[in-house]
DNA sequence: GTGCGTGATGTAACCGGTTACATCAAGCCG
DNA sequence: CGGCTTGATGTAACCGGTTACATCACGCAC
């Protein structure tokens, strides 16, 4: 055995008086080893405390046993849950998970490139990497895009547009609101953008004009608070506000009452994502439930499946689009009774 | 070049008409290459689109360029922020981050073992892995324990006990509350436990008995809601409730007013962690700010530093204890004016 | 007894890098 | 001119596994 460090196949081979091939056969449970030999080798393995090096295995199999996930960062419950979905599938398959947060850094492409070189497959949140770049990379390895559409890549997403349309339609038809606005910047990633489009779809369906452009803010609660103050100061509250996510809605709900405006009395509000706090806020928040965990899990499953067995090539995934169901969760903040 | 896949050093060597050693010298920017040769090799590298394989590099240097982080899961903002701290340090160093969620699975030890084999160093959240096991593993590689104490391992933590004592003392001295209870199960990980101990320290300082044992619940908002209902049903609200984290406090704050009990009028409440929603809730939540991101970043820095340069051995870290500052954030929920 | 099939095991190449050491040519000096 | 130094480059071993193929002993059939 090397002076320091773990024993290798060759150490075991020497110790048991066999060849490395035989040791390898034992560790891989290859049946073509005579029982007495097997026992002798196993004894040496136990005696020296040998476990095959992950590096050696990776080298031989050309498999990293690692799945990469690329997202903007881990801020907010959405991404955390997504990662949990990916992670749960990965651990069951004995695969490690490499997390890369791009934080919209300019050199994110290079980081993704690097990550791609140490993983068997990639799960990428939409909007975090250039699509051309990903499409090229997808020639080499399985890549699954989450929460985005693409005609060149495999995507897993929810139909945020349809969901936004559904919940907006509820505001229009069940409550008769006519002056509606959208909170959240639709210029960034695919998710907020499609939600905004669904919001506009519903308005268009009813021949109603938007009561003002989207309120372009980031996606954290503080921005919701800022938006609430701005709306209040303008003296011109819409009938209802559709928020790009629940955090924004919480920010508004926490601020508006303090300014003397009640929810949903003076303005109704709906969120998106069904945050774990949504059912506890007062009023309880009407929102859209997304199977975020499933989104991650499904993406991971597709990616790992395409990775295939050690022998096989890592298949490039054909373009495909898997759409998971959303569900409008009607609570009180839209104006419905408890 | 192999029929499929990326070119290797040997492909470049053949293409440029030099040896692999020279190619290696060029990629590593070794100055001992004559300029004309360097240019010729570089031209081949560009022509074939060569980048050194991460696997080959790992094998040669015995470094994975990967940092592992072990935690129960990614539920709640605390862990997400911790990972972000780790991740930010890692990407700056060109190091990948491997996340392992144990979810308190019985076979977590084996997963950690595996993770340890594919990483250069480990950051472990306290309570997720057996300390004996970690101590042994720490002979082999740098391990940093987060949010825990140990006399055998390097730890990075905040003094949750002192912080809990401080905020509890505020409840006792500034407001004169006498009947205090703690919400959250102190039987699990080190963090909740030390918070509970600090809570009891403050009571002991003032010669006051706990108004009832700790309310043993999990750490999500729903449990806070359950606890609120239980307290209300018992008809015996304490003067003040110290919660193991902010989510629990949110759960209580969302539920109690609906039962006709006001906060802080009928019962004061304080949380822990300074969640991003804490300043927005109504009343705003008095809590303890923890430098969670810094916790992760510091742990990662220590771990990576111990990993050392490619040549050097991965040093086992000597036992050490780094304590980061907490800060009580006094808001309204304890009874203080806005 | 010879030839052949079969099962167990060993040998050596391979995966993709790095690097100690060998080699070699050129320049310099006495 | 011979020997030494120096700088550039090549050779081959090594990191730790797997595996195609070779080898060998044994048993069986003819």
UniProtKB/TrEMBL annotation, chains A, B:
Task: State whether keyword Transcription applies.
Answer: yes
Alphabetically, the GO molecular function entries are: DNA binding
Short name of one Pfam family: LacI
Q: Which domain of life is it from?
A: Bacteria
HTH lacI-type domain location: 7-61
Keyword annotations of the record: DNA-binding, Transcription, Transcription regulation
Q: What is the protein name for this chain?
A: LacI family DNA-binding transcriptional regulator
UniProt source species = Isoptericola hypogeus
């Amino acid at each position: 055995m090397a002076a320091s460090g773990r024993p290798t196949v060759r150490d075991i081979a020497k110790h048991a008086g066999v060849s490395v091939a035989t040791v390898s056969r034992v560790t891989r449970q290859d049946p073509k080893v005579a029982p007495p030999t097997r026992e002798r080798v196993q004894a040496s393995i136990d005696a020296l405390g040998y476990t095959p090096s992950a590096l050696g295995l990776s080298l031989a199999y050309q498999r990293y046993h690692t799945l990469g996930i690329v997202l903007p960062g881990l801020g907010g419950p959405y991404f955390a849950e997504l990662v949990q979905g990916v992670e749960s599938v990965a651990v069951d398959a004995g695969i490690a998970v490499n997390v890369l947060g791009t934080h919209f850094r300019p050199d994110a492409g290079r980081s993704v490139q690097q990550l791609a070189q140490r993983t068997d497959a990639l799960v990428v949140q939409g909007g975090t990497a250039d699509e051309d770049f990903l499409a090229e990379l997808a020639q080499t390895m399985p890549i699954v895009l989450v929460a985005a559409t693409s005609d060149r890549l495999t995507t897993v997403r929810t139909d945020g547009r349809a969901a936004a349309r559904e919940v907006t339609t509820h505001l229009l038809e069940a409550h008769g609101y006519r002056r509606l606005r959208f909170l959240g910047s639709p210029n960034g990633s695919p998710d907020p953008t499609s939600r905004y489009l669904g919001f506009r779809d519903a308005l268009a369906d009813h021949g109603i004009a938007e009561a003002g452009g989207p309120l372009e803010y980031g996606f954290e609660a503080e921005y919701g608070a800022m938006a609430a103050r701005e709306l209040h100061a303008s003296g011109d509250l819409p009938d209802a506000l559709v928020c790009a996510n629940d955090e924004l809605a919480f920010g508004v709900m926490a601020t508006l009452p303090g300014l003397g405006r009640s929810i949903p009395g003076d303005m109704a509000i709906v969120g998106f994502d069904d945050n774990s706090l949504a059912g506890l806020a007062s009023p309880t928040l009407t929102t859209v439930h997304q199977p975020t965990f499933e989104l991650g899990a499904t993406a991971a499953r597709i990616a790992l499946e395409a990775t295939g067995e050690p022998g096989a090539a890592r298949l490039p995934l054909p373009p495909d689009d898997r759409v998971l169901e959303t569900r409008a969760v009607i609570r009180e903040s839209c104006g419905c009774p408890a």
